[in-house]
Structure prediction request, 481 residues.
Amino acid sequence: MIETATKGKIVIAGAGVTGLMSALRIKQLDPGANIVIFDKADRPGGMYQSFVYPNGRVFDHGMHLIYESCNPDVDDLYREVMDEQDWHIYAKNEKDIAGLFFRGRLQDYSHYVDLRSFSETEKKRFLGDFMFNLEAGSVDSRRSGRQLLLSQFGNEIVEAVHRPLVQSLYGMNIEEADRFVVKETALERVILFSPDTMLDLMQSDKIRSRLGFPDQMNLPPYRTNDQKALYPKRFGMKHFIERLESAVKQRGVEILTNIASLSLHCSDDRVDSISIVGKDGDSRELAISTLLWTIGWPGMAHALGVNMSDVSMSNGPKVVYANLVFDKSPEMGRLYYFYCYDPGFAAFRVTNYTNYCPAASADGFPVCVELWPSRLGLEASQLSDEQCLALAMDELRRMGVITDSHKLEFSAIENKGGGFPLPSMANTDGIREIKKRVFDKGINNVEVAGIMAEDDLFFIPDILNHAFSVIEKTFTEKNRT
Ligand SMILES: Cc1cc2nc3c(=O)[nH]c(=O)nc-3n(C[C@H](O)[C@H](O)[C@H](O)COP(=O)(O)OP(=O)(O)OC[C@H]3O[C@@H](n4cnc5c(N)ncnc54)[C@H](O)[C@@H]3O)c2cc1C
Prediction:
């Protein structure tokens, strides 16, 4: 949909990793490109920026490693921005050591739900239904999360496990869930067998795509790619973002932060210019050749004056970050992080930074609890910092992650209202409708990348693969003309 013109700037909305990496890619393809990026925050980086406290302590937005895209155009850029020696690079079974708190127990061997603690009778029901289900046809093409889960596991497991789980996490009936729930919450497998039995069963593709291996550190080399996970050797993803920002600026790209509002000025089929007003009241008008929008379809529609009043979409859980430092290591073994799926908890995920960045524990052991207060029927904005801290500490104790002998040395609560997308079919339909209305405007110099630019785009590897393919198409076409 992009048509590039020779006059005007390439304007990128959003200076998160998508906006910044996109700017570098455009510069690779067209070194003369005149690019401006703008962002409402006071610093670039988006969700990959770190919180920095007055005492110098640093925390990320919960767990945020960078997983490679398995696309050299993207992955080589990470190493160009920051030398290989400045990254921790985790491969194979070290790439993602994740666990789960499920049925009152911390699983440090896998983040897939382990059904082996159910009764013998229940397990027989699960297994019989699961095996018969393997014969069933392939997944239909609709968006239903329940349909996808049924095709993976059969009705018995979905009713006993996934129905309460989706309810507990999202406060949503499983019938309302989009198939994206499976990807967003890593529900694609369950555990039914011991490692020995699984070694045998994993010869089958059908089984391997449904059943998890219950010993992640000894998972056989079945992976189809050599994807790695990257984290700066210095603690804080901000160290990567700072290098990324400076690489972007060195290539002559301008970054405008602290943007208060914007308006687009369009002719029949183009966005001609954008007016940007800063929080300090200063305003700029920029002529646009191409607009790359990385901040979501609803914002795009709003900026183009598309009516969305009849499109109903619901917000996902609000996230509160409880950033804590203890005097000794939390009881999490080697886990980088684990999810909490049990009802009765606000915690969605707990991260032990030291396990993937040893420098994190230079002065105590930093831990982040990502709280979703909605899981307990609480409104995040109504909770004081003291209440959030008490919730996080109580839940860590109940999960056995800390004991009475752990001393809290530092705490900070971040409750600014950011959310997790609600993976409902109504939301997917809403985004599709908004996209359609934007396309109907016939604007031909705008492209949308970033979270939910296409169905299921949420994690950075997929987002950057999509963004780079959009850019490739645009700038290869431009260079050809
Ligand atoms: C709660 C949560 C947890 C996550 N956990 C993980 C995880 O564990 N692993 C993982 O791989 N991914 C995770 N993700 C997804 C990951 O954060 C995204 O893939 C990644 O941040 C996408 O980068 P982005 O640049 O597209 O968006 P963002 O990082 O969101 O950056 C968008 C930028 O746009 C700016 N912006 C927004 N609106 C406007 C506006 N109107 N005007 C100007 N600027 C604006 C923002 O300030 C921000 O700087 C998580 C996401 C969330 C929300």
